[in-house]
Design brief:
The chain is an all-alpha fold. The protein has one domain (2-145). Helix content is 66%, strand content 0%. It has 7 helices and no strands. Helix 4 (80-92) crosses helix 6 (121-134). The termini are far apart. It binds heme C. Heme C is lined by residues 32-33, 35-37, 62-64, 69, 73, 87, 90-91, 94, 99-101, 105-106, 109-113, 115, 127, 131.
């Protein structure tokens, strides 16, 4: 019984800690990422953007949506640990060589600026954690819903 109580306390603690990290990560996203990255986009919105690129050669947005970024990075860094390590490093020291986006993304948008340098270690951890858990699609599932 005692062990069970301990387990219950531990579980509650673990879940609330994870919730807090997720919430904090969302705040960091809104503050520091959402000027360029939309959280999500419908297939219709993406189709419209593709039309604009075809007509003008330029996208009306500054970066791929986070739903796409999350799915894409998971293809190369599938575990939570590797994903978070990659994102924390990429946002601090981004480069074309390190990046795993589609070649088209760098052509359209250029390489991301090192926004992570303005964030604390905790903020970087939280936003990377949020990005991993906010979306559940694999790259294959994402691409099926949003053909490129
Ligand atoms: C000034 C615009 C801008 C801001 C602000 C911005 N990004 Fe980006 N981000 C981009 C662009 C453009 C790309 C696509 C090119 C690239 O990957 O470098 C990108 C790509 C990425 C990628 C994919 C990396 C890869 O493999 O190529 C991740 C992860 C990412 N952003 C995370 C973030 C996070 C987290 C934040 C907020 C802390 C953020 N970005 C803020 C412009 C931005």
């Amino acid at each position: 019984m005692k062990a069970l109580t301990h387990l219950a306390v531990l579980l509650v603690f673990t879940f609330s800690f994870a919730d807090q990290l997720f919430e904090k990560g969302y705040e960091v996203f809104k503050k520091s990422c959402s000027t360029c990255h939309r959280e999500n986009m419908s297939p219709q919105e993406i189709a419209k953007i593709r039309e604009t690129v075809k007509k003008t050669g330029k996208p009306p947005i500054k970066a791929p949506p986070m739903s796409e970024v999350s799915a894409r990075v998971k293809k190369f860094y599938p575990t939570e640990e590797k994903f978070i390590a990659f994102v924390k490093d990429y946002i601090t020291n981004p480069s074309r060589e390190k990046g795993v986006c589609l070649p088209m993304a760098y052509k359209l948008f250029g390489v991301m600026p090192p926004i992570g340098r303005t964030l604390s270690e905790e903020e970087k951890e939280a936003v990377s954690y949020w990005l991993y858990h906010r979306f559940s699609d694999s790259w294959e599932e994402f691409i099926k819903k949003h053909p490129h």
